């Protein structure tokens, strides 16, 4: 499905700023906003079983009931869909207050270590990725200009 196409997987409120191809959300209140704005009419929105049951036909069930922080589930979904390069933009392992979220860091790290054949690229012009991620051989860092150059090709 995804091997030869640049696709975007979003979470944590980015839906208000851009249109992703796929979006992961578990919070019922945020899903109501997504429905009201008709975002789920244009984008495949994934959630867990309870939200899918409570909103029939609105959202897709995360395959295999995969659980964890939404950023990790979105990262996993990209791997599950067959991508061999996963670019992490706006993903730094911090919470909404900007402090490190060790659980999110651990969950994303678990995805990185589970898929050694996938190259994970942290895109940033200054901030460092969590050291747990940097310790993986399938993890690297790019600048935004390098990423934009790739997208322009």
Report on the architecture of this protein.
This protein has 153 residues and is α/β, with parallel strands linked by helices. It has one domain (9-152). It has 6 helices and 7 strands. It has helices at 28-36, 49-54, 70-80, 102-114, 131-134, 144-152; strands at 9-11, 22-24, 44-47, 60-61, 85-89, 119-123, 139-142. The strands form 2 sheets. A 4-stranded parallel sheet has the order 1-2-3-4. It has a 3-stranded parallel sheet with strand order 5-6-7. α3 packs parallel to α4. The longest helix is centred in the last third of the chain and has 13 residues, at 102-114. The radius of gyration is 15 Å and the shape is globular. It starts with 8 loop residues before the first strand and ends with a helix.
Helix content: 25-40%
Task: Give unreliable regions as ranges.
Answer: none
Number of strands: 7
Major β-sheet annotation: 4 strands, parallel
Mean pLDDT value: 92
Amino- and carboxy-terminal Cα gap: 20 Å
Looking at the structure, what is the overall shape? globular
Q: How many domains make up the 3D coordinates? A: 1
Alpha carbon gyration radius: 15 Å
Q: Number of DSSP helices?
A: 6
Beta-strand residue fraction: 15-25%
Structural class: alpha/beta
Series of H and E elements: EEHEHEHEHEHEH
**Major β-sheet strand ordering:** 1-2-3-4
């Amino acid at each position: 499905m995804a091997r030869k196409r640049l696709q975007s997987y979003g979470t944590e409120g980015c839906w208000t700023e851009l249109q992703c191809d796929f979006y992961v959300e578990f919070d019922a209140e945020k899903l109501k906003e997504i429905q009201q704005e008709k975002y789920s009419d244009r984008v495949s929105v994934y959630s867990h079983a309870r939200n899918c049951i409570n909103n029939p036909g609105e959202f897709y069930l995360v395959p295999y009931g995969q659980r964890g922080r939404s950023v990790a589930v979105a990262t996993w979904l990209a791997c599950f869909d067959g991508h061999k390069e996963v670019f992490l933009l706006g993903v730094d392992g911090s919470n909404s207050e900007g402090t490190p979220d060790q659980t999110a860091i651990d969950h994303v790290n678990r995805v990185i270590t589970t898929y050694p054949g996938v190259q994970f690229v942290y895109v940033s012009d200054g901030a460092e990725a969590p050291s747990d991620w940097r310790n993986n051989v399938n993890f690297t860092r790019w600048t935004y200009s390098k990423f934009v150059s790739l997208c322009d090709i």
